[in-house]
Amino acid sequence: MTTAKDIMHTGATWIPAHETLDRAAQLMRDHKVGALPISAKGERDRMIGILTDRDIVVGCVAMGHDPSKMTAGDLAQGTPRWIDSEANVEMVLEEMQTHRIRRLPVVENKMLIGMISEADLAQHLTEEQIAGWAEKVYARG
């Protein structure tokens, strides 16, 4: 059985809620990622959201805000989704499809150990699985 841990990429980097969006963009650039889990005030084991590069552009820059003054916490919305490292691929796909998300943190013993992105899915799934996933995640409505 292929698990979330088998298909994730390791080394997910946290961003503290108080950190500015310009710093978040620098971390994304340096780590070559498009999303960072947001941690509660210094608590690396409590995720309060996920910040994406698109969030910075749409929620800050396009709104005329200064990314050096807005924080990651300012854009943390909703309940963050995650999956246990031992969950099978079908559970991963269902979680991502149900919530229409393209990145999913992977947790083991309540600690973040990695992230599953579209690129990870493309490397590990069949074309049929990816097509079904994309149809549900990107469907309008």
Q: The biggest beta sheet, please?
A: 4 strands, mixed
Separate helix tally: 6
Classified in CATH, the superfamily is CBS-domain
Please mark out the parts with pLDDT under 50 across 5 or more consecutive residues, or reply none.
none
Mean pLDDT: 90
Using only CA atoms, what is the Rg?
15 Å
- Tell me the CATH topology: CBS-domain
What topology, given as strand order, has the largest sheet?
Answer: 1-7-6-5
Write structural notes for this entry.
This is CBS domain-containing protein. Pfam families: CBS (PF00571). The termini are far apart. Strands 1-7-6-5 form a four-stranded mixed β-sheet. The protein has one domain (4-137): CBS-domain, CATH 3.10.580.10. Helix 4 (89-98) runs parallel beside helix 6 (127-137). 35% of the residues lie in helices and 25% in strands. The protein has six helices and seven strands; from the N terminus they run H-E-E-H-E-E-H-E-H-E-E-H-H. The chain has helices spanning 4-7, 21-31, 53-59, 89-98, 118-124, 127-137, and strands spanning 9-10, 15-16, 35-40, 43-52, 83-84, 103-108, 111-117. With 141 residues, the protein is α/β, with parallel strands linked by helices. It is globular.
Care to give the gist of this entry?
The protein is an alpha/beta fold.
Walk me through the topology.
Elements: H1 4-7, E1 9-10, E2 15-16, H2 21-31, E3 35-40, E4 43-52, H3 53-59, E5 83-84, H4 89-98, E6 103-108, E7 111-117, H5 118-124, H6 127-137
Parallel strand pairs: 2-3, 5-6
Antiparallel strand pairs: 1-7, 3-4, 6-7
